[in-house]
Design a protein that fits this description.
The complex is a heterodimer of chains A (591) and B (582). Chain A has 591 residues and is of the alpha/beta class. Among the domains of chain A are: 169 residues, ABC transporter transmembrane region fold, CATH 1.20.1560.10; 69 residues, Rossmann fold. Chain A contains 21 helices and 12 strands. In chain A, the strands form 3 sheets. Chain A has a 6-stranded mixed sheet, sandwiched between helices. In chain B, the strands form 3 sheets. Chain B has a 6-stranded mixed sheet with strand order 6-9-10-3-11-12, with helices on both faces. A 4-stranded antiparallel sheet of chain B has the order 2-1-4-5, with helices on one face. In chain B, strands 7-8 form a two-stranded antiparallel ribbon. With 582 residues, chain B is α/β, with parallel strands linked by helices. Chain B has 2 domains: 267 residues, ABC transporter type 1, transmembrane domain (ABC transporter transmembrane region fold), CATH 1.20.1560; 196 residues, Rossmann fold, CATH 3.40.50. Chain B is built from 17 helices and 12 strands. Classes of the chains: A alpha/beta (591), B alpha/beta (582). At the A-B interface, helix 2, helix 3, helix 5, helix 8 and helix 9 of A face helix 1, helix 2, helix 3, helix 5 and helix 6 of B.
Chain lengths: 591, 582
């Protein structure tokens, strides 16, 4: 058996009994649904005999009806229980699959996330499990029930009348063939529809994220024209795809009605032959009861074929999803290298010992980088966009690992410690603020889950966000999310409060203040000065005024250190830093 | 109130023809058992006693013919259904787009772009599905049930009574299950949204989660959410599991009753002509048809529930009455007979009634040709103030005058073309430079564009493109740097030849020298009223007047040199940027 399916089975192992029960219950239901038409047919024959020559047997009919009643009661109860059990077991186990996926994603290296789009990962955790759900339900309900129904019906049909059985057996599967052909054909159109839809969604995204500007530019009418144009195209392709694909149902009904007519005709002819001189073609006797039974069988027989044909694509899709999920679940997590040594605080020194790094093993982003930092020093990385500043932070926190050289904490390689014990040293504020759905308290308190409300408010006050928080409708209890109309600066202030609350040994500010005005930035930096006393800190900033006070300013170009020193030293050097600094201050001169 | 489904009016004919053709198919389907009854009752006897096979053969062929006719009419129905469905979808999308483009900032904010995007892309599709299923499948079941009822009365009214008892029973249980199930599906949807949200949030913040070692906390949240979803889905599956067995049960009980009653009449009352075996076959066939049609309806519950919820969401957008109403003053470029191009009197603004004022008692006067600056800290209300100038919002209290007349009296198109705002976050649209700069206005010629490019200091880099103005613009203008985008946005606004140009921090990504050149060029346009909002003192130094905004109020006004002396905030900002006192 395929590895993926074996793995899926593991989840269902604890439901062995329920699954066994499902198999039995489906059997009961199918049996009752196949036997009923047969027994009804027998009853009709008795009635017909009574009408013809009073030879019908009243007790036989009553017996038949009693048996049918029992079958119907048990059949419908069985159907109810297995319907419920199937969805119950599948939902439960897929909840576990989903939880395992999410857990896995949280423990995968950042590299995994960086190399994929958010949408891809999201669909792994959300859509793929849904697809498996559909496939499993389809498999258990449609396939198992369908195949049982087909087997039972074929058995009964041949038992009753082999000629009619052959008629049904040959004609009914035709509908299966037709729906298969139709879906193959409509796929072509469907593909076109999906392509146009993607195009339309692209336009929608672009326009709706910027609608205020479009309106402000008075550009909405021209934009609407463009939108309508693609919308029209979507209409054309979608209408065609839908029309073609809806051929399936009527086509199968056409076949069903054909079978109905032919069964009626052949059945009637056989009836006539049977009554005439007891002339029977090869033992195939027919009565009106038989016709009635077969008319129902013809329907029952075709139904599973139609359903299975629609389930096949679901099962295929589910299998692809299962493969993807399986691949995810077998990815290597960050911490499976059998390292359990924890880094022991306090941190005394950090040493970048001749490190190099490359994201794609082609272009080196960091080249032979050397730097020694002592406890309590404030370090600034300065350089152009893409010079490798943020990469250094990524390496320090072990979001990525160096490709050459080593980073030493207290003269020991950080790769020898568990990642969480290294990360435990850092309080982070990154360029992109992060707000999640929850109230303000939860958002700030995220970094230290046991913090009291007073502690949180204290941090909010010292990071200058208390004022705007109080102006929100519910103060600290206001629920916010990404789309809340907080300004970029306000979101960043919350991130800063969050980092303050964590109160870690090392503070990292990666372009943290680039979206905040200079005065507020100054206030924050002041607050940090207080907080960072005796703490090691790393600052990356565009504005040089914020980093003037750092002990160590490291100027980086193309992943290499080109200048190191403090503000005064570097200015006196009249090198790269001097140039950068002056370009910012030139702006003061009048024009 | 505008409703999503009023789009159906445009597709009246296909929308009516579709169900009619469906009905034709149902009628053919209902005739089929009737003919079978005739074959059994008459055809077989004729063949046995008179050796006359004509009727059997004739009616069997008729059955085949009916099948083909039924098929054809369904196809016609499907065709009309597909036209209606997609036509309605297209129309609703266009209407939504149009509606949103009439929104003010207030309404855009209230919904949020995420809501609007989901509505126009997903909800319309879901509603479409509902419409399509309603025309194609949902009508079939009730028609079939009612038709079968009529036929059963024609065949034997006593049996018809069984059908009559059967129908309300089915209706009641379907109604109950539909009602509860649709509520349950919405609840599940909510829980599912929560799961998606946690996923999105945590994928966005993965560096923070890992950095703070909070993986377990997030996983716990997620597991709580999946568990809640599971609980709701369990409730839903109980409901859904009832309906099929119930239908199976009821329909078969009806079959048993038919046989039992007939048996009673024939065996006990000796009423041999009560019913024929052909009648029985036909009646049982009807029940089977009903059973199959109802099972199809069951599968539609989810689609309809979702379509209903989507319909509500769409209606919520469509029913908004835009708060910004159009005025009728148009084209008074020649009218120079006014004192102030802009005048604000005691203007206050808040995003909703219960929220605090973002702007408070703003008073300002701007004359034509003046160059004005506005400075303030993050969240001081600068951008909100600007939105008053081209009516992206209206003042809550106080009055805004444009050329001495209430700004509400002006035609919005005229106003927006005449007062052009350049945002800090400059947006370029997928396409080419030409369409981005002219905003698809064909009357702008190349010399004007080149001129504007030169003013905005963009000519140098645009000139270097071999395809010049036909240069490709990627989605979100991702093939341009921030500074290039800002300059191109300024060009775009200049090409409207506005009387008032407003730069909302739109030179923030420019280097100092380019910024200086650009501002100098703008200063030279004597007729142009210029309003510059910036956090950078360097962009404001030479202006006629600078307003200092703090917590939604104008706290200081003056020239750069005056403010350095008189305004504490201005001085603080200045010092934070140039570090004079450190």
């Amino acid at each position: 058996m395929k590895k993926e399916i074996k793995n899926l089975f593991k989840y269902f192992r604890k439901n062995k009994f329920s699954i066994f029960l499902i198999f039995i219950l489906v059997l009961i239901y199918v049996a009752s649904s196949v036997i009923t038409p047969y027994l009804i047919g027998l009853s009709i024959d008795e009635i017909a005999a009574q009408i013809r020559d009073l030879s019908g047997n009243f007790n036989t009919i009553i017996l038949m009806l009693s048996i049918i009643s029992i079958f119907i009661v048990f059949g419908s109860i069985a159907q109810f229980i297995f319907n419920f059990l199937i969805s119950f077991i599948i939902e439960k186990n897929l909840r576990d699959v989903r939880n395992d996926c999410f857990r896995k994603i949280n423990y995968l290296p950042i590299k995994y996330l960086d190399s994929r789009t958010r949408g891809d990962i999201l669909s792994l955790a959300i859509n793929d499990t849904d697809n498996i759900n559909l496939a499993l339900v389809g498999f258990l309900k449609q396939f198992y029930e369908g195949i049982l129904t087909i087997i039972f019906t074929i058995g009964f049909m041949f038992y009753i009348n082999w000629i009619l059985a052959c008629v049904v057996l040959i004609l009914s599967p035709l509908s299966f063939l037709i729906s298969y052909k139709v879906s193959k054909n409509s796929n072509k159109f469907y593909k076109k529809q999906v392509e146009t839809q993607a195009k339309l969604n692209g336009v929608i995204m672009e326009d709706f994220l910027n609608f205020e500007q479009i309106i402000s530019l008075n550009y909405q009418d021209e934009k609407l024209k463009k939108f309508s144009h693609i919308n029209k195209e979507f209409y054309k392709n979608g209408q065609k795809a839908q029309f073609i694909s809806t051929f399936t149902n009527p086509s199968t009904r056409l076949i069903n009605n054909f079978v109905y007519a032919i069964v009626g005709f052949v059945g009637a002819i056989l009836c006539i032959f049977s009554s005439e001189n007891n002339f029977v073609i090869l033992g195939a006797t027919s009565t009106i009861g038989v016709i009635s039974t077969f008319l129902q069988y013809a329907n029952q027989f075709a139904k599973p074929f139609n359903e299975m044909s629609s389930t096949i694509s679901e099962i295929q899709q589910g299998y692809q999803s299962l493969k993807r999920i399986n691949k995810l679940l077998f990815e290597d997590t960050e911490n499976n290298k059998n390292i359990d040594k924890k880094f022991k605080k306090p941190l005394e020194s950090i040493y970048f010992n001749n490190i190099s790094f490359s994201y794609d093993s082609k272009k080196e982003v960091i080249k032979n980088f050397n730097l020694k930092i002592n406890k309590g020093e404030k370090v600034a990385f300065v350089g152009e966009t893409g010079s490798g500043k943020t990469t250094l932070i990524n390496l320090l926190l072990r979001f990525y690992d160096v490709t050459k050289g080593e980073i030493l904490f207290n003269e020991e390689n950080i790769n020898d410690f568990t990642k969480d014990s290294i990360r435990d040293l850092f309080g982070l504020v990154l360029q992109e603020s992060w707000i999640f759905n929850g109230n303000i308290l939860e958002n700030i308190g995220f970094s230290r889950t046991n913090a009291t409300k007073e502690e949180i408010i204290k941090c909010a006050i010292s990071s200058n966000c208390h004022d705007f928080i109080m102006s929100l409708p519910d103060g600290y209890e206001t629920v916010i999310d990404e789309s809340t109309s907080l300004s970029e600066g306000q979101k960043q202030l919350l991130s800063i409060a969050r980092a303050m609350l964590a109160n870690k040994e090392i503070i990292v500010l990666d372009e943290a203040t680039s979206n905040i005005d200079s005065l507020t930035e100054k206030k924050i930096v002041d607050a940090f000065d207080l907080l960072m006393r005796n703490k090691t800190s790393f600052i990356i900033a565009h504005r040089l005024s914020t980093i003037k006070k750092c002990d160590l300013i490291v100027v980086i170009k193309n992943g290499e250190v080109i200048e190191v020193g403090n503000h005064i030293e570097l200015l006196n050097k009249k090198g790269e830093y001097f140039k950068l600094y002056n370009s910012q201050f030139n702006s003061l001169k009048e024009y | 109130m505008e409703k999503a489904l009023s789009s159906l009016k445009k597709y009246k004919i296909p929308c009516i023809l579709g169900p009619i053709f469906k009905m034709v198919e149902v009628i053919f389907e209902l005739i089929t058992p009737f003919i079978m009854r005739f074959i059994i009752n008459v055809g077989i006897n004729e063949a046995i006693y008179d050796k006359n096979y004509f009727n059997i053969i004739f009616y069997s062929i008729l059955l085949l013919l009916l099948a083909v006719l039924g098929f054809s009419s369904t196809i016609v129905c499907q065709y009309f259904a597909s036209i209606t469905t997609w036509g309605v979808g297209e129309d609703i999308r266009n209407r939504l787009y149009k509606k949103v483009s009439s929104f003010s900032s207030n309404e855009l904010n209230k919904f949020g772009s995420n809501y609007l995007i989901t509505t126009i892309s997903n909800d319309v599709i879901k509603l479409q599905n509902g419409v399509s299923m309603a025309i194609r499948l949902a009508l079939r079941a009730p028609c079939l049930v009612i038709g079968a009822l009529i036929c059963s009365f024609i065949i034997k009214w006593q049996i018809g009574l069984i059908y009559l008892g059967l129908i309300p029973l089915i209706c009641i249980i379907y109604f109950i299950v539909f009602k509860f199930s649709s509520k349950q599906i919405l609840k599940m949807q909510e829980k599912n949204d929560k799961i998606t949200e946690i996923c999105k949030d945590s994928f966005n913040g993965m560096r923070f989660i890992k950095g703070f070692n909070k993986e377990e906390n997030v996983i716990n949240e997620f597991e709580k959410a999946t568990d809640e979803y599971y609980k709701e889905s369990k409730r839903n599956s109980i409901l859904n599991s009832i309906i099929n067995p119930f239908t199976f049960f009821i329909v078969n009980i009806a079959v048993i009753l038919i046989v039992y009653i007939s048996t009673n009449y024939i065996f006990i009352d000796n009423n041999l002509s009560f019913i024929t075996s052909g009648d029985l076959v036909a009646l049982i066939s009807y029940l089977n048809q009903i059973l199959l049609a109802l099972i199809v309806v069951c599968n539609l519950i989810v689609i309809f529930t979702k379509a209903y919820a989507s319909n509500e969401r769409i209606n919520k957008v469509l029913s908004v009455e835009p708060t910004i109403k159009n005025g009728n003053i148009f084209n008074d470029y020649q009218d120079l007979n006014y004192d102030y191009i802009f005048k604000l009197e005691n203007v206050s603004f808040s995003f909703s009634e219960d929220k605090h004022n973002v702007l408070q008692n703003i008073n300002l006067e701007i004359k034509k040709g003046e160059k004005i600056g506005i400075i303030g800290l993050t969240g001081s209300g600068k951008s909100t103030l600007l939105k008053l100038f081209n009516r992206l919002i209206d003042a809550k209290n106080g009055k805004v005058f444009f050329k001495d007349k209430n700004i509400k009296e002006y035609d919005l198109n005229y106003l927006k073309d005449n007062v052009s705002i350049v945002n800090q976050k400059s947006i370029l649209f997928k396409g080419d430079l030409l369409s981005n700069l002219t905003l698809d206005n064909p009357s702008i010629d190349e010399s004007k564009i080149i001129n504007a490019l030169k003013v905005a200091q963009a000519y140098d880099f645009v000139r270097n493109y071999s395809d010049f103005l036909k240069h490709n613009v990627e989605e979100n203008g991702s093939n341009f740097s921030g500074g290039q985008k800002q300059r191109l946005s300024i060009v775009r606004s200049l090409l409207k030849e506005p009387e008032v140009l407003i730069l909302d921090d739109s030179t923030s990504a420019l280097d100092a020298i380019t910024e200086k050149k650009l501002l100098k060029e703008l200063f030279n346009l004597k007729d142009l009223t210029l309003i510059i909002v910036s956090q950078k003192i360097s962009a404001l130094i030479n202006l006629d007047r600078i307003y200092v905004l703090d917590h939604g109020k104008i706290v200081d006004v003056g020239k750069h040199d005056d403010l350095l002396v008189n305004s504490k905030i201005y001085r603080d900002i200045y010092n934070s940027q140039f570090g004079r006192n450190e």
